[in-house]
Amino acid sequence: MTSGVGFASGLQGHQIPSSLMGKPPEIGTRATKLAQSTALPRYGYAVQDRNGTCSEGIREAVSTLLPGYSIDTIEQLGSGTDHVAYEINGELIVRFTEEVDLERRAELIRREHELLAAVAQVSPLPVPEPVSSDPELGCLAYLKIQGTPLLVAPAPERLAHAESIATTLGDFLTAIHSISGERIPDLVPSDDQSMREWKLEAASLYATVSELIPVANRGPIETFLRARPPQERHSMAFSHNDLGIEHVLVDPATWTITGVIDWSDAAFVDPACDFGLLCRDLGAAALDAALRSYRNKVEQVDALRERAAFYARCSVFEDLAYGVERDLTPYTDKSLAALEWLFKP
To answer: Are residues 212 and 333 in contact, defined by beta-carbon separation less than 8 angstroms?
Structure first.
C-alpha cells in the first residue's frame, strides 16, 4: 500500500504548498481565464513545438495549479486517447483531460482525484496519489512513480519475467477487485458490454488491420470471430479496466513492479477483463500465474480463464489499430507478437 506522507519533502527543493495537497478544489469557485485563453487552445493546455519546448501556456497552467511551486523543466510525456501528460522538474506528472465540455471536464477531474485517493488506500502496489487538481482547467498533478513501462521493455526479457510479474498482479487484482461501490460511490461507471458487442467490435477492427496480419494467423482469427462467445453470466468488480503493459511500471534492474498508472478508464466490469489484457500482452502462462495468486469467493477459475482468453483475443485488434493509427511501433510490435499465442496457426 502506498503512503500519502512526505509529498513536499520528496520534491527535491521545489516546494508545494501544503494547502494544495490531498483535497480537490471546489468546482466553479472562480472564472478560469486560462481555460479560455488563446495560450491554452482547445483543451486547456498547450503542446510542445517541433523543437520539444513547451509554450508559455502549459507553464501558466501549471503555475495556476501549483502556485508557489518553482518550475524549472516541463517535458511532454505523450498522450492517450483521452489525455495529455507532462513531467514537471522530473518529479511531478500533470495530466490534462482532452474533454472539451467544461462541466464534464471538471467532473472527470474531481472524480479521478477522489478515486485515486481511495485506490491508494487499498492497493498493494504504488498508484498515482494526487498532490493537486484543478477541475476547471481539467488537470491533475501527482508525484512521479519511478519505473519503466513494460511496453517499452525489451520483449524477450519482458516475456522471460512475465510469470513473476503476473503473479504480483494477481495479488494486486485481489485487492482492487474487492473495492465496493459503497467505498467509491458515483466515482466510476458500470460497463457491462455484452460479449456479442465485444465480438462485433473486434471483427470491425480486424477488417481495418487484416493486411498487416500474417496469413498463417488469419484462419484461426476468422474461426474465432465466427464462433459463439462464452456464457454471459458473470459477476461485476471494480477494475482498472485498461491493465495493458503500458500502464504497468517496473524496475528494469530487478523486474519488480513499481506502480500501476492511468486509472482514467476505471469502472465496474467483468473481473475477467483485467486478466484478459494480461493474457493479451504477456501470454497464457502469465494468465495462469495471475489466476493462481488471485483470491476470490465469487468466480470459478476456469470460467475466469475462458472469459479472459476471449477478451484477450478481442482486444488485440484494438491495440494493433491504435498503434497503426498513431504510428506507435511498440503497440504494433507487441500486438503482432501476441497473435502467436492468441491465434496459433
So the answer is: no
Please give the residue range of the domain that contains residue 88: 8-143
Choose one of 101, 122, 143: the last residue of a domain.
143
Who's near 190: CB < 8 A, 6+ residues apart?
236, 267, 268, 269
Grouping H, G, I as helix, E, B as strand and the rest as coil, residue 54 is strand
Side chain identity, residue 30: R
Give 185-242 as a DSSP string.
TTTS-B----HHHHHHHHHHHHHHHGGGS-HHHHHHHHHHHHSPPPP-----EEE-S-
- Residue 286, burial from CB neighbour count under 10 angstroms (0-12, 13-18, 19+): buried
10-residue mean pLDDT series, the chain (345 residues)? 34 49 38 32 34 60 84 81 86 90 91 94 95 89 94 96 98 96 92 93 97 97 95 89 97 97 93 97 98 89 95 98 95 97 95
CATH code where residue 138 lies: 3.30.200.20
Is the same domain home to 180 and 263? yes
- pTM to 2 decimal places: 0.83
**AA letter at 154:** P
Sort strands 148-149 and 257-260 into parallel, antiparallel or unpaired: unpaired
Q: Which three cell numbers stand for residue 136?
A: 476547471
Q: Could you tell me if 339 and 319 are in contact, meaning their C-beta atoms sit under 8 angstroms apart?
A: no
**Judgement on whether residues 107 and 30 belong to the same structural domain of the protein:** yes
CA distance 86 to 83: 10
- In the chain, what's the furthest Cα-to-Cα distance? 60
